[in-house]
TrEMBL record:
UniProt subcellular location: Cell membrane
Top-level lineage group: Bacteria
Keywords: Cell membrane, Membrane, Transmembrane, Transmembrane helix
Name of the protein described by the UniProt record: Putative monovalent cation/H+ antiporter subunit E
Protein family (similarity comment): Belongs to the CPA3 antiporters (TC 2.A.63) subunit E family.
Organism: Isoalcanivorax pacificus W11-5
């Protein structure tokens, strides 16, 4: 049954939505809805993401959340000062690469969310071997400081959580 109907709840939802959107329960729409509700999950089953992990180390998750929240607030102030400050200060932006140790897909996704949500940093590219991360930093004053900050404040706790 799982082979022919890989995600029964999604199929039931799709069928219900089909009937609601067409505003009819005519036999032809039931037939089209069943075909649609079966075909979409069946043909997209290979595109499903990696299974979610169990929550491990909730204390570290809470600590990481507080660190990220603090860093976002601090970064908002710093970015505001860069934007509203003198024009010559804006010339410090640039690209840098950070070596990565984390390999877990969920950990990389969490790191991407953290870095993209922090004002002044943008995740640009991840190398094919997942060992190098390219970032754009609005106020790139010291690459070593940024590398140390990312590895110690974000990557280390994420490795403890996901690996």
């Amino acid at each position: 049954m799982k082979r022919w109907l890989p995600f029964p709840l999604i199929s039931a939802f799709l069928l219900a939505m089909w009937l609601l959107l067409n505003e009819t329960v005519a036999p032809g729409h039931w037939l089209l809805g069943v075909a649609f509700a079966w075909a979409v999950p069946y043909f997209t089953r290979q595109m499903q993401p990696v299974r979610a992990l169990k929550v491990r180390r909730p204390l570290i998750i809470a600590q990481l959340f507080c660190v990220v929240l603090f860093d976002i607030c601090r970064s908002c102030i710093a970015v505001s000062l860069v934007i509203l400050g003198p024009a010559k200060r804006r010339q410090n932006s640039g690209f840098m690469t950070v070596p990565l140790d984390i390999q877990a897909p969920h950990g990389l996704a969490a790191l991407a969310c953290i870095l993209c949500c922090t004002p002044g940093t943008v995740w640009v590219e991840l190398s094919a071997d997942r060992r190098q991360l390219m970032l754009h930093i609005l106020d790139l004053h010291d690459e070593e400081w940024w590398t140390h900050t990312i590895k110690q404040r974000y990557e280390t706790p994420l490795r403890m959580i996901f690996e």
